[in-house]
Amino acid sequence: MLQDYAGIMMNPAAVLWDMDGTLVDTEPYWIRAETELMNAHGIDWSEEQGLEFVGNDLLTSAAMMQDAGLDLPGTVIVDTLLDKVVAKIEEAVPFRPGALDFLDAIVTAGIPCVMVTMSYRRLAEAVICACPDGSFDGLISGDEVTVGKPDPEPYLKGAALLGLAPGACVALEDSKPGLASAEAAGTIAIGIPHLVALEERPGRILWSSLEGRSVADLRELTSRQSV
Asked: Mean pLDDT over residues 42-64, rounded?
């Protein structure tokens, strides 16, 4: 009995999931939407420029597009991009390799999950609806924070949504701004680089993929942090 209890205690209090690039591979949708919008207004746009937006909040990305010559209000840019990406999500949700199996294992272990994304709620909810019922216990979206990633606010709010200390939660991230946000919030932050490389540094946790990962991996990290 004591051994079972100890095993439960080693679970993280919650897992805070980034969405774009971590749970689902929607970054190509965003880059395509940005390229179509810029090209429609006579502005050349490259994939490399689109990669600079990975992990940003949407209004920051809109401002960068304005700086590149797009003469539209920021809110119009955001709404146009969202319309395009939501339409693609409604056709097919491109889950990242291993993400659904890992999510299922976490939920089965009784660990609550919160999505913490810079995408807006209407897009995030479309992705959550494509996940198995009951996968997520909460959502923090980009239109519900005062300051987006890399500021710690999104992950602080994600932990607070469940009444938890950030340090008791694991955060899963693929982007530079997202990982910086999770680390600054004090979570047990795991970087899973996708389109953009993440810098290796002492104490930083990086996984090459979610494929083959299990709750045991999370327990090991949580136990290591508590020592």
From this structure: 84
- Whether 217 sits among the annotated catalytic residues: the reply is no
Residue 100: the pLDDT is: 97
Confidence (pLDDT) at 227: 56
Q: Which residue in 22, 7, 17, 14 sits closest to 216, CA to CA? A: 7
Marked catalytic residue, from 4, 18, 67, 104:
18
CATH topology of domain 2-24+98-226: Rossmann fold (3.40.50)
Q: What is the 3-state secondary structure (H, E, C) of 83-143?
A: HHHHHHHHHCCCECCCHHHHHHHHHHCCCCEEEECCCCHHHHHHHHHHCCCCCCCEEECHH
Residue 202 neighbours by CB under 8 Å, 6+ apart: none
Longest distance between any two alpha carbons in the chain, whole Å? 68
Instruction: Please tell me the least confidently modeled range out of 42-46, 167-171, 203-207.
Output: 42-46
pTM here?
Answer: 0.84
Instruction: Kindly name the residue from 20, 25, 57, 174 that is annotated as catalytic.
Output: 20
CA distance 204 to 125: 30
Confidence of residue 159 (pLDDT cuts 50, 70, 90): very high
Q: Tell me if residue 20 is catalytic.
A: yes
Residue with the two structure tokens 């990290």: 221
For the chain, give every domain's residue range: 2-24+98-226, 27-91
